[in-house]
Structure formats: structure tokens, C-alpha cells
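Worked example

This section walks through a single chain of length 168. The input is the sequence exactly as stored; nothing has been trimmed or padded.
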Amino acid sequence: MTHYIAMGGEHGCMPDNCQAYESLENAIDGLDCIYELEEWQLDNLKEFSGGHSSTELRRDQGGAYCEISSCDCSEPWEHGEMDGPENWPDYVNVEPEEGDYIIESTVSGPDIISKYSDSPPWRHKIQEGDNIYKIISDEMEGGKYWPNVWTLSDHGNLSLISLESLKE
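Given that input, the structure is written out below as C-alpha cells.
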């Protein structure tokens, strides 16, 4: 699916900001919020052709340029520093895949971390004081494989989460 990458900064340098949006309109609005664009600059960005549009900025707007490009990669969250798969549900598998971690909440006892369809099965009962982030990240580092992490509620609801959300 096509999404839109909005970025801006100084010419010849890495962008100061970069974010993916689901629509061209949202990308334009995002840049407008950052740079407080004038009408002529908004018009330049709306002239989207060949998968790209750009406009020059005045010095007092906080950069030299801003631009929008279309992209059809499968992981749009990779374009934004503070973005994650949980913000792009249409791009993410709705079911766990082989090797994904599942944090199961249980009513009768401690929570359990397991790997989905893993042979041999790997399970870890969470004890009081356990750091779930450390347990999972150590397992990922040990196997040099970084799959998705899911939560399974005691009601059977499955949700994709980011490993970083467990860091707290």
C-alpha cells in the first residue's frame, strides 16, 4: 500500500524530521504543523507529481526545504523515529507468526511469556520483580532474531505491541 513520507531540514544534510503518513493530505498537514507553511508553500506540496513534491522554506520557518515522497514499502513505521508497527495495523500481520513472543495474562496465576509454535517450546513464567523487557530482549539477542511481541489477555484478545513499550 502507498504511504507518504514527509521530511524537511537543510539541503545536503540528513532531514531534521521524517514521518510516514497514510495520505498525502495528512503529510501536508504534518509539515504545516511543523513549519507553519504559507499558502504558496502548501500549493507547492499539493502539486504532487511523479511521487514527489517539495517547497522551499524561509529561514524563520526552521529549515531550508520540506518535501513529500510516496513509498510502497511494507514497514512505513521505519520512516519515523517515534513510530512503530502498532500505529500501522493495515500493514502488520493480524496473527502471530512462527517465533513471535506472546505475553499471556492468566487469571489464576503468574503471567507467561511463550514463543508461538516454537519447537522445542519455550515458556517463561513471570515472577514478581521480573523485567519482561529484559527477558524478551535477552532471548532475542541470544537467538539474533527479533520477531514481533504480542499480548494475549485472559479474555483471549490478541494485540501487537512494541518491545519498547515494555521497557518502563
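What to look for: Residues 101-166 form one domain.
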